Amino acid sequence: MEDIGPTLDRARRRTTRIVAVGTVLGGVGGVVLALTSDSGLAGILIVIGIACAVGGLAGAVTLALYLTGLLPELSRPLAGLDRAARRAVSRSIRTATPIPPLDGELALRGAERARALALLLPYQTAQLVLLYVGIGGPQLAQLTSDEPWQIWFSRIFVAAVAVTAVAFVAWARRRTAAARRYLLVVEPAA
Hints:
Elements: H1 5-34, H2 40-70, H3 72-75, H4 83-95, H5 105-136, H6 148-186
Helix pairs in contact: 1-2, 2-5, 4-5, 4-6, 5-6
């Protein structure tokens, strides 16, 4: 596996800058739109919502462009394996149990897969969180609408996006921790 650390560092730095610029530009656009609002709270929610939408979507697209080129690193260790072997590798990573023999081909592929998961999964999680922020942001302004249907739709939509994001982050953190535990078990032996 090639060293993807510098590429991921570059992606993190560039995405951080793009999210910051997108949030500021979205906030400025939100201020322009908020000046047409009668309610103070609606104006604040418009600014926050548009800033979240522009910053989140810009960051998600930026990370997607970087990660698309790195996704083969996740599938390369499992290439050519049958279904049972792929399951065995995934199970061994999930339980942090090395595949015997430790110097065998399957164990080495498991270590490569765990290394790729430990590096790429946090970035994929950040991409999805930015996407959720970008999708949910525009709904914030509808929370103070005069129409009951819009208020309830926005509440349910924002709550669903937030619950989905929290559930995915928890799942991704467990998978990342499992991959790191597997590497701690396997690396000293290699």
